[in-house]
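EI: anyone free to look at a 348-residue chain?
SC: sure, send it
EI:
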Amino acid sequence: MKKKLFETCKTILIAVGAGSVIILLFSWIDSTSDGSVLDYISKKFSYENSYIDGSGIHHVSQVLDWSAIKLAVICVLVVLTAVIIIVFRFSAGRREARLQEELKHKEWEIDLDSQKKNDLITYLAHDLRTPLTSVIGYLSLLNDAPDMPENKRADYTKICLDKAFRLESLINEFFDITRYNLQEIELSKEEVNLSYLLTQLTEEFYPILQQKQLSVRLNDPGEVMISADPEKLARVFNNILKNAAAYSSPGTEIMIDMEQHNDAAEITITNHGKTIPKEKLARIFDKFYRLDDARSSYNGGAGLGLAIAKKIVTLHNGKISVRSENGLTAFSVILPAGVPISAPALTK
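SC: here you go
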């Protein structure tokens, strides 16, 4: 209803504007022709009335020709109505075309997401076979050879464990893909100490970081308090850290910097690795988009982690961005504080 009213008002304003332009143009033409245009029109809409009074004096006066004026007014109204109808139809046509285009684009995006989702499920189903076959094979060897040398048994056990972790990762990807469109993310806000939250996360990442000899440096400015959903926020930084660990060069350091402003907190997570091309950087928060095209590598997740992170940050009225240059990739998350700076620390 509001949209229709807006469009109607816009059309009327356009018509009034057009009328004003016509009047101004007419005035300019009349002034440049020393009033001859107005004189011509006045003659068209009036006639001379001559009569002789009782004293025999002859009088001549200009009398408006109301029939001509009525006809002119009717013609002008017809023309203005036609202009308004044409403008309204044109505007409505453009609006409808734009809506159709937006609808087609949304349908295309849905089809593309559906295709990506189906492809990922197909790839994951295929990839499940490899680690599962290895686990069964090595467990069979261990079962069939109870007198196997201890060092070889340890090697086989380690391989089985690695493959089991890979299976767990693939199954989690299945859950992420199927769960993404089945649930809406709802926030349950409370006072959160970001320093405490990030310290906990870095400690939990220790086993993953050790695999690539990575380290984390947290520049902790002290208590950084915000109003947020701690569980969802942990998921944001977990996904960013997981991405940083996956694409960091071995033996490098992941840096986490925090800054507290008057009304917001900014967290920047930087890792050393290959510079991400601009065309990939522009799509990094798209769902089902993966930086690593090799679908079966450990780096190749479902492509939902960063999309989910962006959705959660947006629900917190925050902003998330990324930049990559000279081998450094930095994810920046800005979150509104929502609580006084002097708020007490979160206790668990």
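EI: The longest helix spans residues 66-144.
SC: 👍
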